[in-house]
Amino acid sequence: MEKHVPFKHRRTTLERAEKFISTHHFTDINLRSRLYPARKAVTSLTHYAAPGRISYEEAMKGKYTPAKIGQSFGPTWATHWFKVEVEVPADWVGQEVRLVWNSNTEALVWVDGKPVQGLSSEKDRYDFVLSSKQEKGQLRYTVYVEMACNGLFGAGQNSMIGPTDPDKHFTLQQVDIVTFDRDVYGLILDMEILYGMAKELPDSDRGYQALYAANDFVNACDVQDKKTYKRAKEISEKFFSQRNGDTQHTIHAVGHSHIDTAWLWPYDETKRKCARSWSCTIGLMEQYPDFKFACSQAQQYAWIKELYPSLYKDICKFVAKGQFIPVGGTWIEMDGYVPSGEAFVRQFLYGQRFFQKEFGIKCSEFWLPDTFGYAAQLPQIMRESGITRFVTQKMSWNLVNKFPHHTFWWEGVDGSRVLSHFPPGDSYHLEGHVKEVLYTANNFRDKGRSSSSLFLFGYGDGGNGPDEHMLQRLKRMEDIDGLPRVKMSTPDEFFKPIEEKEADKLCTWRGELYLEMHNGTYTTHAKVKERNRHCEFLLQEVEQAWALLVALGRAGGGKGEAGKAAYPSNAIERLWKLLLLNQFHDVLPGSSISIVYDDAHRFYKEIEDEGKQLLSKAVSLLGNALGGKSEKSSTLLVNSLGWQRSVVVPLPVNDTAQPSKRRKTQSQTDSQGNTLVCVEVPSCSVGGLESCVKDLEETESVHVEKQGEFIILRNKHVQAKLDSSGRLTSLRCAGSSRELLLEGCPGNQLLLYDDVPLYWDAWDVMDYHLETRKPLEQVTQKATVKESGPLRASIDVKTRISAESTVTQTIYLDAGSSYITFDTQVEWHENRKFLKVEFPTNIHSMEATYETQYGALQRPNHYNTSWDSARYEVCGQKWADLSEHGAGLSVLTDSKYGYSAVGGVLRISLLRSPKAPDAHADMGTHNFRYAVMPHRGSWQEAGTVQAAFNLNRPVKVFPLAQGVAVSQPRSFFWLDSSQVVLDTVKMAEDRPDEVMMVRLYEAFGGRAEVTLSSSLPLRSAGRCNCLEEAQADGDLPIKTEGGVATIPLKLRPFQILTLALTL
Ligand SMILES: [Zn+2]
To answer: Are the C-beta atoms of 785 and 706 separated by less than 8 Å?
Structure first.
């Protein structure tokens, strides 16, 4: 008979193909209905409600009672263990037999005491293979299932990011054994590719060829007759065998599972998420030797090593095989803006050291796919940590502007460059679909310059990473005409050819990678930010004090315990690692659920308590070691910063130095009854109080006077006029007629904004919040003079925010200080409001400058373009500045990171009040401090960098046990230029008894030739990288004269320089 060729309708044909493998329609008769031909209930199912997240051994001691399908288990975060006993029917011999488990939660299967596979209801991972080919001998199986009462995204109320529902229960829906038909499985996957190509290539020859092949495939395949499967297979294989040309884009498919170290679940659940996901990964690796999986975050490996030793052993095996690939080089995937420079360095130092020690691997790519913006100093820190490549995809989340590159050079503020790649699939949890492969190739924005992309596949968080379906799909797409070329690959296999062949064709992006989203995270959870900064400095001070002590001991300068003091390497490393953990990219930004912050604050307390103890001990031993003549005072002063400081300090009440014996200008009793004195302390020094007390000339003291409604504050640097609301109506450098504030627009103006984002509550402050600016003008306690000099003049004022919230400020100026400080206490009980403070200046400038890690960067002071305007809220470290030629104004902060500048108005972001995912974020009392500093010249000339350090790291006053002799202050390090900052002094990780590491940086953005001097006997000096590895030709000459060692140094703009000093 003649073959009647119908005029095929594209839509009906396409849908016919789709329905043939649908998971929702016609599942009783379509091909998928044949996937599990036989099904049987398990023999026995018993249950034990565990008291928490217990070990397998503890779980085995539990009392198990019968459980049944349909039963509910909870509440949220609870753990339930199940013992499942199975007897496979004899007629299943030879078939693939699986346990199917659906508890609507995450779960982990244990066999013979080992964690073997994660299960996840949200990502349809229900199956655990009992036997890939059932044998006669073993028909009985016993497995344990550890059920965690949470989903992939925790247990949010109403929405994914809603605050946790504490009483969620989960129904055990299915526990069965089944047979699995691999032939049917193969056909389903073939059809997925045919259908995908037919759908995604609508107007091409190839798309129509796929459509017709899919149609023929359905015609050929009679699901009830296995014999017809062969014909269908031939149709798909013929189509797949039609190969690509030579010029196709190449997709490097790398398995990945982005596991947030804490987010909508606590740290402890992450440990189990890792076990669940990575056991799945190991299982797949056994089956698929060409499957590669990139895995970051050393901390997660360390957890698995401690808690799941058998799994860790398997991981080590596959790392050695090159399939399980440690990437990133950091301790965790941290926030990209808020941590200090030193904290960034420690992420790499401890991360790389872990990977080297455990696997002999040093990562060559920084892996940070999900962080909310990337600071401009990161390229140099990467380079200094052995890393030359960078992977993220978060920039695809930009709200306004599309980032112009996917493969490019990212150049930091110092000129360091790293080869960067943003996988153009715009995701780090792809599933291996035709659509994603095509999107990756089409979306790639560096066509012509480069022709390959990374493709990161695998479910994140609790989805258990890549699954077999993804591997099967990608395998089929390796080389099919019409699709990009796909290969299982590694990050190294992706980057290497680009470095070798395309490096000089690529474009360069200079400066930060600003994410046009999530910019509320510079401010949310203010206490986390505050404790983060204080702990960063505390640990640096602990290290410095102990390093100086060890150095003195080595030089024979210490007696007794002080002379023998050993550097507490382990304690310091442990505390740093806790701090680094809390810098995870959902913890430090403030975007985690409430219970994560219970843990985070517990860790901060541990760091603070232990850090303070370590510091006190070191300082008291330093006091002993320094010896010297006995003084009246039993108080030590410590200046941890690398410059001399003249400051006002409060003396401890029990100090024996009698203020009455001093001239009037030398002391003052503050409002709390403390004695204030002015001290001059040398650079990086420790010494007795008495010899540091400084005589104050009349011209140096601070003055306060009332002028009608106004109050004038002035010292030799600053002259300010405040109104009765505590607002600055005039601000000048002393003796200057140049007014820095905009006429009629007061400084220190507190503002309240509406802060209702579109969805990401804790994360986003939207551009439209700027249109809701409301100045706070209701003063409940007018500005009154509290202290009137000569060392400190202060003013108290209280402002109403709302019926529930208030701001109380003590505004003060110290003798000799270059800035006015605003000690601020806020009672904060708001809902989606944003508190800021503004300083409207009359400074004319195109740009504002913000401190970044180990340096500074400029950002626009205008909204010229969409790129400028999108940066309406930006992140800075301790200061921001607006300057024109000859004068400027800096603001300094002790714990704030959100800033903005436009049209000469400089603002600091103080507090937010989002309600998700933490319903109580930021509610309560806050104490913080900011300062304003008018200056002549540029911020570099004015000493803004040093002033911000001074605000954050006051000279520390340590009362010592009575009878301890304390010496003249001894300066250990000093520099002959303010251009270079001495940032870190610590002992080396590997030789903590004899090698001191000193980290400095060029802070002004210019070339510097400086001399570092030390009163310590130094045997040799050499340049190192941030991993403390000696650099080739890094030896530096040391000249020692009169007990002072000097080392000449040359630095390029914003260079970080690490020195190893052998004692
Ligand atoms: Zn993440």
So the answer is: yes
Q: How far is the CA of 358 from the centre of ligand 1 (A)?
A: 24
> What does the pLDDT average to over 63-69?
97
The alpha carbon of 264 and the centre of ligand 1 are apart by a number of angstroms equal to 11
Residues 6+ apart with CB under 8 A from 7: none
Q: Do residues 42 and 131 make contact, with C-beta atoms less than 8 angstroms apart?
A: no
Tokens of 140: 């009985």
Tally helices (H) and strands (E) across the chain: 20, 57
* Identity of the amino acid at 790: P
Distance CA 229, CA 218 (A): 10
Ligand 1 centroid, distance to 1019 Cα (angstroms): 46
Q: Where does the pLDDT of residue 968 fall: very low under 50, low under 70, confident under 90, or very high at 90 and above?
A: confident
Q: What are phi and psi of 29, to 5 degrees?
A: -130, -10
Task: Return the half-sphere exposure (C-beta side, CA atoms, 13 A cut-off) of residue 308.
Answer: 24
261 and 299 Cβ atoms separated by less than 8 Å:
yes
DSSP state letters, 954-1018:
PPEEEEPPTT----S-EE-EEES-TTEEEEEEEE-SS-TTTEEEEEEEE-SSS-EEEEEEESS--
Residue 682 has pLDDT above 80, yes or no: yes
Sign of the alpha-carbon torsion through 631, 633, 634, 640: negative
Residue 549 has pLDDT above 60, yes or no: yes
586: CA distance to ligand 1 center in Å? 7
Residue 998's DSSP bridge partners are: 985, 1059
Judge contact between 603 and 616, C-beta under 8 A.
Answer: no
389 band by pLDDT with thresholds 50, 70 and 90: very high
* Pairwise CA distance, residues 256 & 217, whole Å: 33
CA of 240 to the centre of ligand 1 (A): 36
Q: Which two tokens stand for residue 881?
A: 């500045």
What pTM, to 2 d.p., does this model score? Answer: 0.97
CA-to-CA distance for 701 and 308, rounded, in angstroms?
Answer: 64
What tokens appear for 188 in the block?
């389903």
Environment class of residue 840 by beta-carbon count within 10 Å: exposed (0-12), middle (13-18) or buried (19+)?
A: buried
Q: Measure the CA–CA gap between 805 and 980, rounded to whole angstroms.
A: 43
Q: Per-residue pLDDT for 658 more than 70?
A: no
Tell me which residue of 770, 1007, 728, 750 sits closest to 889, measured CA to CA: 728
Residue with the two structure tokens 């049209």: 903
Annotated catalytic sites, by residue? Answer: 370
Q: How far apart are CA 83 and CA 1042, in angstroms?
A: 77
Residue 54 token pair: 């217990």
Q: What is the DSSP string of 61-115?
A: TS--EE--TT-EE-STT-EEEEEEEEE--GGGTTSEEEEEEE-SSEEEEEETTEE
Q: Give the distance (Å) from ligand 1 centre to CA of residue 130.
A: 33
Distance 428 CA to ligand 1 centre (A): 10
CA 988/CA 94 separation, integer angstroms = 60
**Interval between CA 763 and ligand 1 midpoint (Å):** 13
User: What is the pLDDT averaged over residues 4-31?
Assistant: 94
CB–CB of 103/172 below 8 Å? yes
- Euclidean distance between CA atoms 454 and 436, whole angstroms: 12
Interatomic CA distance for residues 724 and 740, integer angstroms: 20
pLDDT bucket at 659, cuts 50 / 70 / 90: very low
Burial class (CB in 10 A: 0-12, 13-18, 19+), 717: buried
Q: What spacing in Å lies between the alpha carbon of 45 and ligand 1's midpoint?
A: 36
| CA 177–ligand 1 middle distance (angstroms) | 35
Query: pLDDT tens-digit profile of 305-343?
Result: 999 999 999 999 999 999 999 999 999 999 999 999 999
Could you tell me where the beta strands, DSSP code E, fall in 290-427?
293-295, 324-326, 365-367, 389-391, 407-411, 417-421
